[in-house]
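User: Teach me something about this protein's shape.
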Amino acid sequence: MSGYDLLKAVRSDETLRSIPVIFLTARAGTEARIESLDAGADDYLAKPFDENELLARVGNLIRARAQERELTELQKEKLTRFLPQPLGEMIMSGTADRFLKSHRTDVTVLFLDLRGFTAFAETADPEDVMNVLREYQAETGRIVADYQGTLERFSGDAMMIFLNDPVPVQNHVEQGVRMAIAMRNRLEALRIQWGKRGYELGAGVGIATGYATLGLVGFERRTDYAAIGTVTNLAARLCGEAQHGQILVTERVRHFVENLVSVEPVGELTLKGFSRPVAAYNIAGLRNYAPSTRSGSG
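Assistant: First, the predicted structure itself:
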């Protein structure tokens, strides 16, 4: 294998392409130097070469790569403030093209919002409102990351999360329900803390699963990664019906997690935007769990 063949192989391998390459060759002259650089080499030295010069060039390339990594991390950090973290990381790695285009995917959608927040915001100082939102969003955001969820957006005291896009999540319905239970437990602890400050707040959750269309929406100066479809509307409407501590799910969600949780029938709910009543169930809690073998759950 020639040096050029090796260089081509390195540059075509995604895991190796960022490694700096210096060509050491007996070929001298401008033409050979240009040919090497055009082939993808980072630097070029003709033989015989000075060892100290080689070490200096290696040091320069190492420092340059370190600076590139620092810049990439900074860009990733800024990008993930405005897009879901998994998508931001894909964009930075150059693997997000398929997800940026509109596509249809089976997802589990979770809506969560606070109970009593409107009344609280009307009477509390703005600083207190912001502190509550920061605590709420920080705690739930960590749980979303733990369960590989994609946080689509914060909207005041509400948030929308979906699973199985852009990162595939095995058994995403079960993961979504586990995530909701973890949130309920953490928010109950927060509710007690808030109560000590005189804030009467709670939280409700709605979960639905099904196909949605996902992709970028917005304009050239501001874009969001969104999920659109009946499944998102259904999760939002169930969330709107949930009382404090309730996790309301559809019949389809219940079907996938019947071995995982105990449920309480809530009855058929008349939901805005749906022509027929929707059967809903409240997730009471986890029970002894045998892994599900049902298809369609990721």
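Now, about its shape. The mean pLDDT is 85. The two ends are 44 Å apart (CA to CA). If you'd like, I can walk through any region in more detail.
User: That's plenty for now, thanks!
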